[in-house]
Amino acid sequence: MSRHVKCFVFILIFTFLHFGVNGKKKMLIRKFDMCDPHYDYPITLETTFKEQGGHQYLNITAFVNTPLGLNQSMNATFEYSENQDNFMPLFKFSRSDFCDFLNKDLGAFWFELQKQIGVAPRTCPIGNGRYNLKNYELPMFKLNFPLPSGFIRTILNILETKTNKMISCVSVLLEVMSK
């Protein structure tokens, strides 16, 4: 798998996971889908994940039909529920430059991931192509933003800066638990 393939997959996943948990919590992905399965996004993901021996592994195929990070902005919404019912707003944020978000907001966490996949830190944008990642264990322990125990639903939108065209939209349901 090329280093650009691996880099792209990590960009989408870890944009969400940057807001993970500290060392006293465990976080698992329960659902990871495109926001609207009928919309023709320029960047799409097909994901599966499994739990084995207390670890979670992810398989992703990403279809990139426009360079990821090139003249793109992003916004994310996080909601919370104790039991998957009645989600309430937790927080929202946006960034006018998606590459800046990765390189500045994710920072050391993102750079470490890039090193692990053989990509020079701060590489962005990511080129067009089909990218695959198989049986990858997510390093949740490296994340350091505490969230409450319960369920976190998040939606990440990536938009073309000049036209506001939707480039991609991913919805993720996380379960945060005490260890």
Brief characterization of the structure:
The chain has 179 residues and is α+β, with helices and mostly antiparallel strands. The protein has two helices and eight strands, in the order H-E-E-E-E-E-H-E-E-E.
Short key terms for the protein model shown above:
single chain; 179 residues; alpha+beta; Ganglioside M2 Activator Protein, Chain: A; five-stranded antiparallel β-sheet; three-stranded antiparallel β-sheet; 2 helices; globular
Walk me through this protein's architecture:
Helices cover 19% and strands 45% of the residues. The chain is built from two helices and eight strands, in the order αβββββαβββ. The chain has helices at residues 3-17, 98-116, and strands at 25-34, 43-52, 55-64, 72-81, 88-95, 129-137, 150-160, 166-178. The chain has a five-stranded antiparallel beta sheet.
